[in-house]
Amino acid sequence: MVGLTFYLLGIQASGNFATVVEGEVYRSNQITAKRLAQYRDNYGIRAVLNLRGSSPGSPWYDAEVRATSALGIQLIDFGLSAQTELTEQQVNKLTAILRDAPKPLLIHCRSGADRTGLASLIYQAVIAGIGEDRAERQLSLRFGHFSIPVLSQAWSMDQTWERIEASSALD
Asked: pTM of the predicted model, to two decimals?
């Protein structure tokens, strides 16, 4: 258990950054101005999808608005809760944002585990056509997502994916 705790702290401290689809979409936890500048320089980030939603007056949000503006990066706010299943309308809007946002795109939420995991999974499986088994790794412990039915507050992200999966023609 101690090893798992250190692992989870480590991925958070490092930014929980990973490639979703090379040259198109990347994922992370809450970004700092310094990390965003590095991601722009190293990966060409042109847009940021903030899954925490607009929150003027919050230090993290105001800093993100300043950083994206200063770097010439488009900020897209789309608030989701990791504790609540997405509605069909939210899934459709999120899918459209993922499809239409300028690329390369950086997706983030607070920890980069649950909401970001679901969005990354949708991008890989629905938009990029990556096999479902591989895409489902985006919503995993590798990124700090705990998938424990009923006990986990983020279980709703798994339930949302199961609903999307059942309603689409994925392989």
From this structure: 0.87
